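Hey,
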Amino acid sequence: PAQYDTPPVYSALKDGAVDAVVEPDFLRGEALAMLVRAAEGQLDYLQRRAQKQAPLQLNDVELGMSIATSKAMVFSKAGPNYPAPVAAVDVLAKAAKMSRDEALEVEFKTFSELTQTPQCRALVGMFINDQYIGSVAKKYGKKATKTIEHVTALGAGIMGGGIAYQNAMKGFPVLMKDINTDSLALGMSEANKLLAKRVDRGQMSTLDAGNVLSSIIPSLSYEGVENTDIVIEAVVENPKVKGLVLADVEGKISDDAVLVSNTSTISIDHLATNLKRPEQFCGMHFFNPVHAMPLVEVIRGEKTSEETLAAVVAHAQALGKKPIVVNDCPGFLVNRVLFPAVFGFDMMIVDGADFQQVDRVMEGWGWPMGPAYLIDVVGIDTAVHCFPSILDGYPERMGEIYDVSPTKLLFEGGRLGQKNGKGFYVYEKDKRGKPKKSVDAVVYDLFAEHANTKSSNEFTDDAIVARFMVPMCIELAHCLEEGVVGSPAEADMAVVYGLGFPAFRGGLFRWMDEVGLDVFCSMADNYRQLGKLYEPTERMREMAANGETYYD
């Protein structure tokens, strides 16, 4: 059958890792028949058993080459932060000349040691947290009284196209509405590009891809919107524009349709002020790229009904996403937590840090991208446009950052990041058409003009980690204490799924538990001169004094 027509199955059979491959419907009968053949002496199971219990039949040269090759390959995939894959190769190396029972002792000892590592605690914690956020989402979904059958994506382009694609892939017909033909073309191009990749990888047929694409209807008019069950607004991140568009579409949809905004920072309560049915409105924040990022923040406004939340959470699950419900505030949860770290990074540059060094250190610490590279990928203009919402929302902490923001300086100089090939880095496409970054001396000259000449900071790796991570952790603690997010588990999974926080560290709260809140508070106090962005909450200090942790 087709599901077995793959090289790994035949390789396993050829190498002797399995004895037979059968169709699922015949598995029981074939297994019983194999037992009968063994009992009647037609199958030499004793020889097979002896082979499994014996040492590997390799000489020293063969064994040495196999181990060296395996270690190099496994380390290149796992990296330095995941000890288990490399430990598995070490077990094979140690046990190669042993009998099975002796080898099992080696495996047991190594496994036991791995269970006591921070990585194990973090990853087990992540599994439990993932189960928890799934159970919370299911409880919301069970309360849903409205079934979503038709979707309108309001606003095309890259984001709107991604939202339309994700809905169409999950079987929802989509009306993609915009006022600009170029944006509609870009949105359809984005969906087509993603479908083409799936076809190239053999993940779907050309016919199926065509059917998915044809379920997205691009339109310059609202014709058909009266039949939609949910409108996902994804127009430009401007409160005035969004407010006008939302009020306009509300008057054209059915009375029981749900209206959501894909805003990343603008208050849901503010956007709801012009709506006649604010109880049927909430935030539904997707992350870019929509098809790849698992998190969807569902933002509850002051007037949002539980029925609306239930419908939106259920729809996010139907899209294959991980919905987490948070309460409305500037930046919501993920961006509210991210921007203090961005400001901390900006402050390091002003104090004379090399942004390349910061990127190297934070990527070595586990982040998929350092902050400079991340801002380039997200878009410097996108980041800067979010600054006012965050700075105005939390002036007591974030209003104290340096007047000169290196990120803003780049924006004012027309550098937008990858989208125009110039940001912290400059970008040229490689042979496969992917942007490849390199250094631009102009950026260093620009930063040198605005650097703090009185600064005597030494930027060790530990100092860079602290200055980047501490503001993020403190802001997440504020979110938990203010009730923006319901639990440490939901908060940690949001930063893992939404920001790419390193999974082997388990989340911000898990990391603080691991280092100890007393140690964390001392780390923060080393930078108290930088302002309240680095000031732990009273509750954090209380927990540190009492030896408390965020997790049991």
